[in-house]
Design goal:
Radius of gyration: 34 Å
Number of strands: 14
Shape: elongated
Largest sheet: 5 strands, antiparallel
Oligomer: single chain
Number of helices: 10
Helix content: 40-55%
Strand content: 15-25%
Length: 433
């Protein structure tokens, strides 16, 4: 007989374990096997978790970079149209100040470099008109096509560094390695103490583990009848369950935070950050939905294309800050006379679009349009100065004029230009020529 003494929770236990010479020891064999399996499992888990964390973090940064590139592409569309190279350079520098960029290059529709931050980059796929995202070692390469009214006008190339992410990841790996090593040492000491005094508690513990694995119920606990090796293992198993239960709660909290982050990103992607109105991307979604509903229910819907008159004069003479304040004031004025179901969107610059579902008649739309004009005809005061702006509106109806979202938008745009040519600060309903 071989005896050894152990101290657990302040108690000294003298345990006798039979060892017969020449016969394999189940305790030693189980200990060696469990230690080996534990080591392999923890190393494998460590490698898999590290790989998943890296890929997930890299994709998260890629998604964030793509959203920033899409926003920048939307911002520089007008600059490409009006060949405003200076503003385009400023926009690329602004993007570089917010992101850890290697380079950014803006091409026009003819494949010529229009603007560049850093060394000009070559196109990844010149024939591709979709967003392309590539990972090249420690760089994210993005190719974002630029459209204006569904017409291809250029492409934005962005290369973002991953060095900061890599450094953060290596620090995390170092911390995880230390934690995993401590967990392994802790678990190994427990396993070394395990002796075969009775297989019944071990079978019960195994059944409990299987139940937890099947039910994913980490609130279950093992029954501890004696403070022997298996009893102590049961205690440690319960502690592990408690930690997993706490970890599961923390993970749910992290998932809620991730959901909130996702909602914030959606806010940035779908809403104008100046006025808080739906942007051009969200407007196209809303337009398609409302046109589809109008067509299915044979319900009159109006689309108003709005353009501010003399807005460039405000920017040139009073500055862009005054122009931004004016856009906010105009948005607030227009929303004051709208219903909850009406959707005012900012398409960019001084262009707005208003979606009016469930219109009773064309006359009721005219009345609302006149109220909108009256809101802007009231003095618009910025910095104690009355802004000399008006508003031209083009109106098109679904299904009266068209059942296609893009066609309806073009008709409202044409009607708006008719209103401008007629003297501005008025509205015009599209009519067939």
């Amino acid at each position: 007989m071989s005896q050894y003494s152990q101290t657990t929770d302040g108690l000294t236990l003298n345990i006798s374990t039979p060892f017969i010479k020449g016969r394999p020891s189940l305790v030693k064999r189980l200990t060696r096997l469990n230690l080996f399996v534990l080591f392999v499992s923890m190393v494998s888990s460590f490698v898999l978790i590290a790989l998943v964390l890296w890929l997930t973090a890299r994709d998260r940064q890629g998604e964030s970079a793509e959203l920033a590139a899409l926003q920048t592409a939307n911002n520089v569309a007008a600059m490409l149209l009006f060949q405003d190279e200076s503003e385009a350079n400023s926009e690329l520098k602004l993007l570089a100040s917010r992101r850890d960029l290697t380079a950014a290059t803006l091409y026009d529709a003819n494949g010529r470099v229009f603007s560049s931050y850093g060394e000009p980059m070559k196109l990844v796929d010149s024939g591709n008109r979709e967003v392309v995202r590539l990972y090249q070692q420690l760089d994210i390469l993005l190719q974002v096509p630029i459209y204006e009214k569904e017409e291809y006008i250029g492409v934005l190339l962005v290369s973002e560094k991953l060095q900061k992410l890599r450094n953060w990841f290596l620090q995390g790996l170092l911390l995880m390695s230390a934690i995993m090593a401590l967990l392994y040492v802790f678990s190994a000491r427990i396993l070394i103490k395990i002796q075969q005094k009775s297989l019944t508690p071990l079978v019960q513990l195994t059944e409990l583990a299987e139940q937890i694995t099947t039910d994913r119920n980490f609130s279950l606990r093992a029954k501890v009848s004696e403070l022997d090796e298996i009893g102590r293992l049961s205690q440690r198993f319960n502690e592990l369950l408690k930690r997993v239960e706490i970890w599961q709660t923390e993970m749910n909290h992290e998932l809620e935070n991730a959901q909130q982050t996702s909602e914030q990103l959606t806010q940035l992607a779908l809403y104008d950050n100046l006025t808080g109105l739906p942007n051009r991307l969200y407007f196209r979604q809303l337009l398609s939905q409302m046109v589809s509903y109008s067509r299915q229910h044979n319900q009159l819907m109006a689309l108003l294309f709005i353009d501010l008159d003399n807005f460039k004069f405000v920017n040139d003479h009073y500055g862009h800050e005054a122009g931004d304040q004016l856009l906010i004031l105009v948005s607030r004025r227009l929303n004051e006379v709208l219903r909850n179901e009406d959707k005012l969107c900012r398409l960019g610059g001084d262009e707005f679009a208003l979606l009016l579902p469930g219109q009773q008649s064309i006359d009721s739309t005219k009345q609302l349009t006149n109220r909108l004009l009256e809101q802007i005809r009231k003095p618009l005061i910025i910095n104690e100065i009355v802004m000399p702006v008006g508003m031209s509106i083009g109106v098109a109806f679904c299904p009266l004029h068209s059942n296609e979202p893009n066609v309806l938008l073009n008709l409202a745009d044409e009607a708006m230009y008719v209103a401008k040519r007629a003297g501005k600060n008025d509205f015009f309903i599209w009519q067939k020529k």
